């Protein structure tokens, strides 16, 4: 069963704009991860944020985590056409042995 | 190796046939995972191997699905008597395995696209 749900399902922006994607989950977590998937390719890990962290940065990426609201957001600043991809959040399953992914947000960045 | 590799990259089979999908994890990674991604969907966990421990098979959708990992490295996912609903991309991932699986970054292979006619 799905744990994380991304919002919006699809997002279209212009190059240079910021993109914000949200993720909500249902049960308590140890950490939350964001992955990117280019069309027809495997997933690439972007960021892991632990349950005791509130914010994390990596280059143009900023991830926040609010465990009280069971939600996370991924912000991509100054987007580029190469950022066009699907973005997934993933949280632990109850056994802590694997990730549960949402359906993803499809981001389109046009130049 | 440089990354997780999977073979074949594409597989077309007829309903009722058996298929085997292969995953070569990153050298030194003791944890290995299989996921399935149906069209337009997120990833669905199938099975998790960690070292010599018994695998977590809780995600396997039916007894037609099985997986093994020989020598703690290469893994094979077998689907017996394939059905059309088995059509999906099957993704393999590995991680170092030093921590409980979800505490670590998972590195994904490119996937095997399975089409059951």
Q: Based on helices, strands and strand pairing, what is the structural class of chain A? A: mainly beta
Unreliable parts of chain B:
none
Q: What amount of the residues of chain B lies in strands?
A: over 45%
Distance between the termini of chain B: 34 Å
What is the helix fraction of residues of chain B, given as a range? Answer: under 10%
Q: Give the oligomeric state of the chains in this entry, treating copies of one chain as homo and distinct chains as hetero.
A: heterodimer
Largest interface: A-B, 27 and 27 residues
Strand count of chain B: 10
Largest sheet of chain A: 6 strands, mixed
Series of secondary-structure elements of chain B, N-terminal to C-terminal: EEEEEEEEEE
Helix content of chain A: under 10%
Order of helices and strands of chain A: EEEEEEEEEEE
Give the overall silhouette of chain A.
globular
Low-confidence stretches of chain A: none
Number of strands of chain A: 11
- Number of helical segments of chain A? 0
Shape of chain B: globular
Describe this structure in words.
- With 111 residues, chain A is mainly β.
- Helix content of chain A is 0%, strand content 56%.
- In chain A, strand 6 and strand 7 form a beta hairpin.
- Chain A is globular.
- The N and C termini of chain A lie far apart (37 Å).
- The mean pLDDT of chain A is 90.
- Chain B has no helices and ten strands.
- Chain B has strands at 5-7, 10-13, 19-24, 31-37, 43-50, 65-69, 75-79, 88-95, 107-108, 112-116.
- The mean pLDDT of chain B is 90.
- The chains are: A mainly beta (111), B mainly beta (117).
């Amino acid at each position: 069963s799905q744990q994380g749900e991304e919002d919006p399902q699809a997002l279209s922006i212009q190059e240079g704009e910021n993109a914000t994607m949200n993720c909500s989950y249902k049960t308590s977590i140890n950490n939350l991860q964001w992955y990117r998937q280019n069309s027809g390719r495997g997933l690439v890990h972007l960021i892991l944020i632990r349950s005791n962290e509130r914010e994390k940065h990596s280059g143009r990426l900023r991830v926040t985590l609010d465990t009280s609201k069971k939600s996370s957001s991924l912000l991509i600043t100054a987007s580029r056409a190469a950022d066009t991809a699907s973005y997934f959040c993933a949280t632990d399953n109850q056994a802590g042995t694997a990730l549960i992914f949402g359906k993803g947000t499809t981001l389109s960045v046009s130049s | 190796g440089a990354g997780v590799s999977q073979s074949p990259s594409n597989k077309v089979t007829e309903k009722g046939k058996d298929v085997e999908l292969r995953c070569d994890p990153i050298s030194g990674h003791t944890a290995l995972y299989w996921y399935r991604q149906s069209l337009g969907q997120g990833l669905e966990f199938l099975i998790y191997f960690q070292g010599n421990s018994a695998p977590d098979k809780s995600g396997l959708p039916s007894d037609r699905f099985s997986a093994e990992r020989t020598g703690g490295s290469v893994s094979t996912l077998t689907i017996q008597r394939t059905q059309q609903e088995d059509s999906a991309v099957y993704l393999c991932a590995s991680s170092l395995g030093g921590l409980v699986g979800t505490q670590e970054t998972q590195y994904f292979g490119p996937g095997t696209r399975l089409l059951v006619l």
